[in-house]
Amino acid sequence: MTELAAIPDTCSDCPIRHRAVCAKCESDELEHLETIKYYKSFEAGQTVVWSGDEMAFVASVVTGIATLSQTMEDGRTQMVGLLLPSDFLGRPGRPLASYDVTATTDLVMCCFRRKPFEEMMVATPHIGQRLLEMTLDELDAAREWMLLLGRKTAREKIASLLSIIMRRDASLMLSDGQGPLTFDLPLTREAMADYLGLTLETVSRQISALRRDGVIVLEGKRRIIVPDFDRLLEETGDDADGGVPV
Amino acid sequence: MTELAAIPDTCSDCPIRHRAVCAKCESDELEHLETIKYYKSFEAGQTVVWSGDEMAFVASVVTGIATLSQTMEDGRTQMVGLLLPSDFLGRPGRPLASYDVTATTDLVMCCFRRKPFEEMMVATPHIGQRLLEMTLDELDAAREWMLLLGRKTAREKIASLLSIIMRRDASLMLSDGQGPLTFDLPLTREAMADYLGLTLETVSRQISALRRDGVIVLEGKRRIIVPDFDRLLEETGDDADGGVPV
DNA sequence: CGGGGGGTTGATCTCCTTCAATCAACGTGG
DNA sequence: CCACGTTGATTGAAGGAGATCAACCCCCCG
Known about the structure:
Arc Repressor Mutant, subunit A, alpha+beta, 4-stranded antiparallel β-sheet, 7 helices, homodimer, Jelly Rolls, DNA-binding, 2 domains
């Protein structure tokens, strides 16, 4: 039943061509990349790698969503990253995975064999430069998440997560222009809890509370309608004002 | 009364020569760096930059400790990074500071004028490569901190912070070999609370509790003695075992 | 029809926050 | 030199946000 997403024929067809590690590559560099890459698909729910596993590759997410998470021996788990299309998985120079990586939706990855990729990084600075930019962005995102985990209330955490997912969808232009915004949650309640440092019960309760207060409207369990985006932003606790509203 | 730490004469005298952004530089590259760098000192408690400020430089910490933190408009603050000797401050390509940076001890920084540094990054791949490594390490540290903030109890948070500070001191060889380990907290209770996502009262209580339970011994407010490091590790919640203990 | 995964809701408990008092160390100015 | 204010830290009492334990619902699917 798994209708896997289409896999691009060549790099020039690739939907993440201009955002992934290869963004700065010239066509000759792309040709070289083509020789060391292969695609790999995963179904929703599948594990991509376990923490501690040997990874023969590094990779870019082409389509779908994966999560990075850490687990303590007593079972407590914390999600530490979300991999969206164009995001990079793996660390050059480190053969062992540091986190559990799970596909939360059907997932297509563009994998590069580790050794040749590392060699190529030395030879072509474009790749390292792009990876540096991407890593700095990840670091900023991780730090924003630290503020959320350390200081925000459960309600603020939920509102923040929703607005982040919406912003991402907007940047991928999955939503139209104006009007009440609508989107699907790509995560289960449990995954949201793992991301936000909460229990799934608290996630459920706070979503219900936001619904009761009219901040969001639910269509089924997963589809969310936001009548007033600014209202949602107020709930995040961030000072996102932006400007005078009239 | 501020006896500022000695400032190195040349890069070859520099205590962070082999760990900072310049670690991979050849001597000719160092000579070029010398022309765009200058030292800057801060007293304990001083602010280095405010979030949103224009930064004319990027920099390496030579001696001392600084913190990166984020503040919400209602005053809640979360520390998102600790800058130790050899750590890098600033983001090439981004002129505005993203975080508040504060010296928690007397601090000496080796500053590079932004523009020439960015040009040099393009010309000499060594610098970008080293910065990538350092940024990936920071990202791992941030993710470890996310687990702490999201899932650990107050007691585990304190134990984790103590063991991290100890590990760092050990790597800088500030402590001797064996025996009961001793070190000074470089942070106030409030700073610890900001780092751990707690209130300062909870920090104080948990430190008292660890003292009562014999995990640590206090000498004054700041000096900590750890009779049994493994005992402390058990309290962190991490699966640090490492090996069969006899 | 039974079963299971995902989700919601209720009751209770507990860990941490909040508010507040107290203390020790230190500096400062009358 | 001592009263006073300040800063960092400790401790207590009370309250609350979120966790825990548990029941139940909905829907899909074999």
